[in-house]
Every structure is written in structure tokens, then in C-alpha cells.
Amino acid sequence: SGSSSDLQDYWRYPTSFAVDPVDPDTLWLVDYDLHYIYTSGVWKSTDRGATWNMVYSFRYGYSIVLDKNAPNKAYVAGKYYVSSDSYGSSLIHTVDGGATWGSNAYVPHRKRGYSTTLDPNDPTKIWYAFYGMGMLHGPRPDSLSGVAEPTTPGNVQGVPTGPGQITVTWDPATAEAGLKGYHVFIQYRDELNRRHNEKSCLITDNSYVHSGLLPDTEYRYMVRAEDLDGRVGGRSDYEFVTTLPAGAPSVDTPTDLFATMVSTEQIHLEWQDAADNETGYKVERLNARDGVNYEQIADLPAGTESYDDTTGLAQGTKYFYRVRAYNGSENSYYSNSSYAVTDGSFINPPRELEATDVSQSQVDLAWDDQSSNETGFQIERSSVTNSNYMQVAVVGADVESYQDTAVLPGITYFYRVRGYNVDNQSDYSNQVYVQIPMNINTPADLTATAVSQTQIDLDWTDVSDNEEGFKIERSESDNAHFVEIATTTAGINAYQDQNLTAGTTYYYRIRAYNGTYHSNYSVQAFVMTFTPQAEDPPVVDGVVIPLNPGEAKVLGSVESKGAVNPDNGDTARIYYLGNGTGEFKCMIFTLNGELVWESTQTSVSGYFEWMPKDTASGVYVSYIKGPGINKRKKIIIIR
């Protein structure tokens, strides 16, 4: 690097420019140079561009952005990596005006940076755009100082677990800021010897099942941990695994192998027989103290699902086991491996942990106790991922259940259990999780309307956004003996109840549900179906007004026409014919919804008479509601 104004002549492709928001004499420039390496990088001027200094040599830079509140902080994205061993090293930054530079090692993949911008809503976050990788939003690298990055995952092991499949496991990492998950980096060569580099999605468990692989091909795996702030820890050792040859065996693989220490001289094995054509099972054992390879220790008949190993066990030794079925000369794939220790203080881990959400405030746990020497069980829970566990309870020996009543709606909880005594702790059980649904709002405004002798229409307002549907309940003749008559899917707000009995009052209530969870019940609504014989239509001065049940009609009192002229002494008569006993109500509204008149009566057949002597000319709406009727009719006032 150098400092001279004539170096401006060699800038080939200045790609980004920034002015110090505090000191306008200070300028920054990024040059994307195709040919002259000594001009490619980050340049800075403190005299309005009269002279320039290269503050960082950086090939193919694209973008620079300054922190407006601290302009000595500059962030640069570019096309090339700083070094071939760095992940995310195409992203560099300085916090001291360019005197020193660092790469952003917290970005979990290795792609060419294109542009960067600071998050205007969060001074600790930054946006990066990448070639072939979209955009990422995460912490600024300088905002993460003072907190240790996650530890490096250890003991990475890979095993072919089926045709085109490898299962990779590793020891969990720890993170001061809380562990978010893991990234698995994969390399292999295809049939044409082309090299492939892949990366898994974020994994929250410490195992990864890699499927759809080429047969008889070597795959290389490396694992890194990421914390909740976006820091990515160191790279694990590489694990090399070769997939199984093409052609799956015809004998299915035994599953769920589990080893239990019975005593220092006996280890009990159990597994699931998944085959229906095996002629036997082969049991193999590995002495973890001084063994290198598994050795067959038993040949068992078809259908066997357990074995007790009592041969040649040394005290205080860890033994690994695996099982496979066979048919003649053909073997199945190996089962999972399981181990036990011939040590009096060794505690067999609990099995088959299950979690059930019985309400929005309680989760029930249950497990199988496999040990006889535990003092009790430690129950751990995580509400972020299945890695950041904290102990929430301790129960006594031989206990196989626990009720967690400190849970909240809308949160996913992960659980695991282990036994303990004064000298030791068991391995953890299997991990389980359960998601507690959010509270479900109660449906509102339930109404019931009789539309015939055999049908009632229900309507309500859906005020929840997380229901699976609605459950409709009905009670006949009283409001105390409800039974469920129907369910709907989410978002529905109406239901037609058919095949009912004429002249019968029905009561209704509904509630929303999501799985085993329910909202509160709605308000109740009730209505009577039409009676078998309708009431006589209304008669005025010996004249029958022809109406069917449930209908209404508006006429003037003088000329018996639809329009009403109050200046001639005319009144508006709203004739109706209901269906059932009860209260009938008529309300008159303007077109703007303003109530101008109302009246009630109990006659099932008749009319309401409105005297609009002080009412302006215009169009009004009458609304008649009662047993068996729910109608709106237009009234025209002419003066």
C-alpha cells in the first residue's frame, strides 16, 4: 500500500464511496480492481480527497458503510475471501478508523459478499447480501466482544445407517450466550470425481441424519456450533464415512437396542425385531477399555428380542453392543449401538420419556426407570432450543412421572431426564418436546334464526386466529343438557342445523378448539322452529293482508300503497306474520342507521303503526324481529 493522489489514476472500478457523517473532510472509497492488486482495497482520505491512503488491501471489494454514530467503525463486503481457511472472511470491519481490521467470523457460511448495510432499528445488527446465498441478518461483529464463542463440538462420529444414509453424532457444545444449534459442513466427490461442498440447515440436536447419498462413496463431515447472538465456534475434527454399497439387504434391521447393567457381572440387552424372514440374530460387543473392533458373542434364534451377557465381563468397564439379523449368508444392517458399564455406581439411563400437554398450564412427563441404584431423577427443561437445558425438578428413586405446572401458552418446551446418586449420574433419556398452544379467543355474537319447521341457522363472529375449528352444541327445550352436534374447520362462522322438530325451542352454544384445547363457551342463543300450522295472516277492517309465516309488508293507512304521505294524515303500517309465541319488535332506521322509532307487541299476527308526522321525506328501513320472523322492509315518506 502507499499514499499518493496519483494512485487515483489506477482505480479501475471504484464500487463504493462514503463520507464521514461527523467529519466531512474524511472520505472512504472501495476499489474493485481486476488487474492491479496494489490498488484494490479500502482507501481513506482525511483532506477531502486531496491525498489518499490505502488502509486495507482487499481484492474485489464491493461495498462500504459507516456507523453514523461512530464513523470510525466501517464495514466492508467483497467478493474474495481474506484467506482460504476462513468462513465468512469476505466480510471485514474496523473499529478504529482503519488502523486494524478483522473478518466477521460469525457468519456461518463461506460465500462471496456483495453488499452490506446497518440495521437502522437495531444498532447491534447488520445486513449482508451474498452471491448465491441471499441475505443474512445478524449481529455486527464488533458488538459481540467480551463474550466467548461456542465451544467446538467433540467426538464427531458417523455411521452408515441404511442405503444412502449416514447418521452423524457429536458431543454437545456449550455457549456463554446460549446455544442456538449446529451447522454440519459436508464434502464428497461424485461419480465424475467432481467435488461438492454442502451445508446442512441449522440443527438443534447433536445428531444429523444425512440421506439421499451415493452408494459406496466417502463423505467428510465437520461441525460448528452457533450461539443465540450469531457467534460461530471452532471447527470440529473431520469425520470420514463411506456409505453402504448399492443393493439393500432383504432382512430388516433390528431397532431400539438398549443395554442395561444388571450387576457388575451381567448386562441385559433388548431390541425390536423388525424382520419377518430372519433365521437368527448376531450380537456383537466392544470393550471400550482395550478393544478396537466388535466381536460376536452370541448367535440367537429368529424372533429373539433380548439377551443377557454374562461372559467375560470385567468390572468397571464400558461395553458397547450392536445387533443384526441374518438369513443364511445375508446380514441386515447393524442396529444402533448402546452401552453399559460394569460398575456398581453406574446408573442405567431412564427410557421412553414422553411428554403430554394436558392443559395450557401443565405438561405431564412419564418415563421407564431402568436402574435400581439411583437416589432420584433430575428433570431438565429448555424453552429456547433442545440444548439450553435447566433443571426444573428432582424426584425420588423409583419415581416415573412428573407434572410440570410452570408452563405458558405459545411456548415449545423440551425435556430430558437422568438418574443420579451420590457417586454418579446416568446418561440422559431421549429428548422430547411439546408445544403449548396460545389462548383461544371465545367466539362472539352467536345468533340462532328459525328459517323453517325443520331448520335453524346459526351465525357467530370468529375472533381467534389459532383455532382448528369450532364445536357446536345443542340442547332441546332447556339450556342445561347440551350435546355436541357438529364441528367445523377454522375460519367458519355459520352453521345450518337441519332435520329438527317443528314448534320446538332449541338452545345453542359454541366454542373454538385447537387439538385438546378449547376456548370458553359463547353466549347461548335460542329460537323455536316454525309451528306445523301457521297463524292466520293479519286482517284489517275485514280485509286479509296476504302473508306467509315469516313475511312482512309495509302499506300506507289511507291509500294502502307502499308510499306514505303524512300531510294527508297517512301512517305507515308494517304488517307481519310470525311463527311462535313471544315478543315481536319493530324498529325504524334512517339509511344512515339512526333509530327514529321502535315498538313491541306480543301478537303473532298483526301490524305496527308508525305516525311520521315530523319526519322528513326520504327512504327509511323497518326491521321486524320475533319468533319465526326476521325481516327488513323499506318505507318511503313523501310530503
Query: Can you give the helix content as a percent range?
Result: under 10%
Class inferred from helices and paired strands: mainly beta
Q: Which strand-content bin applies to the residues?
A: over 45%
Mean pLDDT: 84
**Distance between the terminal alpha carbons, to the nearest Å?**
96 Å
Largest sheet: 5 strands, antiparallel
Radius of gyration: 39 Å
The shape, in one word, is flat
Please report the total strand number as a whole number: 51
Q: State the low-pLDDT regions, or none.
A: 1-8, 81-89
Tally of helical runs: 0
Written description of the protein model:
The chain is an all-beta fold and 639 residues long. 0% of the residues lie in helices and 49% in strands. The protein has no helices and 51 strands. Strands 21, 22, 24, 25 and 26 form a five-stranded antiparallel beta sheet that branches. Strands 36, 37, 39, 40 and 41 form a five-stranded antiparallel beta sheet that branches. The protein has a five-stranded mixed beta sheet with strand order 45-51-50-47-48, with no helix packed on it. Mean pLDDT is 84; it is low at 1-8 and 81-89.
Give descriptors for this structure:
5-stranded antiparallel β-sheet; disordered N terminus; mainly beta
